[in-house]
Predict the structure.
Amino acid sequence: MNGAEFSSSFFSGRLQLVGIAAGVIVSILAANVWPALLSTPNVWAALILESAFLAAFLWWAKGGGPPRALKAFRVFIFRDVDLTLNQWAWGLVAALFFAISVHAALVLLFRLIPYPVAMFRRGYDLSVVPSHTIQWLVVVVAAASAAICEEIAFRGFLQRPIESRYGLWLAVVISALAFTALHLGKSWALAAMIPIVFGAGLLLGLLAHAAASLVPGMIGHFIMDVGLFAYWWTGIAGQFPGRPIFETGVDPAFVGAGCVLVVSLAFVAGGIRRLRHIAQDVA
């Protein structure tokens, strides 16, 4: 069954809202398995169990396992296609520069306002983890958990059906709003962060559509979150040295961060544009 045929049959059936709601809820719950496992005494066991869980969750989201009534829907939302070499190349370009864009935006933000270290570190204390190496493993698994589960939830189960029926932009905006709402309860969710989170949601939604796959978005989300967890939220990768420009004035570092943001966004836009053209040629 191709995407158009499935879309037509799916949206005329009673599985419409059930599939979307159940998929989003299950994916968000899956993202919270890792924090629960990390609270157990054995970090190594938690790392192994979470890695196995993520592999199983990916298999399920791609159509494996029950319920069989939603198998075709899961295949549809995952956008499970074999990417060409060109799609991989441009997908990785867009993914990498997406992550760079988010971090450049954070640097600019905390040159405009003071960086609230205590707020950002609340709930992300890795001091109980026995070594620096294991702290990095925890960060990597946490980033993978968020990237896989949130992309499946928001760019898959939520965005894909809306996109198929109502068009790209409405679907992308709705998924980005839901993505932002999910993060509003975080300790670091000050008002100035909302445009960055919403903008990240928009870019990830456009990337999923352009690549016809969730995989490049998962990679970009993963790279972004490794940096967020390691640098901004835990400090294991270092401490942010910048001071607000109302103290230092507009210095070369601030201008440089602005240039990095502009160039990175240009690469993301270019990658998405190329992916759309390639997808049209493949189709």
Remarks:
- The mean pLDDT is 91.
